[in-house]
């Protein structure tokens, strides 16, 4: 059914604390993998990872850290998402997100339930933006 795109995207909005690391920056492999815990927001087809901060983990789902600025923003249009192969990380529940500009991110949470909701929300966001 043809509902306005903004209406579809709005229903996918999601925010929470995730572990993430950038592995490829616009086609160039990042030399040193550095995991950060960060407040993450999915809104309007854009996934935003906020800067690493101590408050980021502490505030949890209650509210985003107020003075934090975005570190990475990933446009979901043209992106792809998959469970990361074992050689990408020894951690469990790792997702690999590839953006259209050739960057790659690993996204992880110890809780399978939590990572699954992110998987679903990001995958649906990608699908809806590509379908339009
Ligand atoms: O792909 P790598 O090099 O095994 O990634 C690990 C490193 O980034 C490591 O940092 P140090 O080299 O400073 O110890 C991290 O602590 C690990 O978490 C990384 O591996 P995992 O498998 O956790 O993504």
From TrEMBL:
Signal peptide start-end: none
Domain PH: 11-127
Superkingdom, taxonomy of origin: Eukaryota
TM annotation in the entry: none
Protein name per the record: Rho GTPase activating protein 27
Boundaries of the shown chain within the full protein: 272 to 403 of 674
């Amino acid at each position: 059914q043809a509902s306005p795109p903004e209406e579809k995207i709005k229903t996918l909005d999601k925010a929470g604390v995730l572990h993430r690391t950038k592995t490829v920056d616009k086609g160039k492999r990042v030399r040193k993998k550095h995991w950060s815990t960060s407040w993450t927001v999915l809104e309007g087809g854009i996934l935003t990872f906020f800067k690493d901060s101590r408050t980021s983990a502490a505030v949890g789902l209650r509210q985003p850290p107020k003075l934090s600025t975005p570190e990475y923003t990933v446009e979901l249009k043209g992106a792809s998402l998959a469970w990361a192969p074992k050689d990408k990380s020894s951690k469990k529940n790792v997702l690999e997100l590839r953006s259209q500009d050739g960057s790659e991110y690993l996204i992880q949470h110890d809780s399978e339930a939590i990572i699954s909701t992110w998987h679903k929300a990001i995958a649906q966001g990608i699908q809806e933006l590509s379908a339009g």
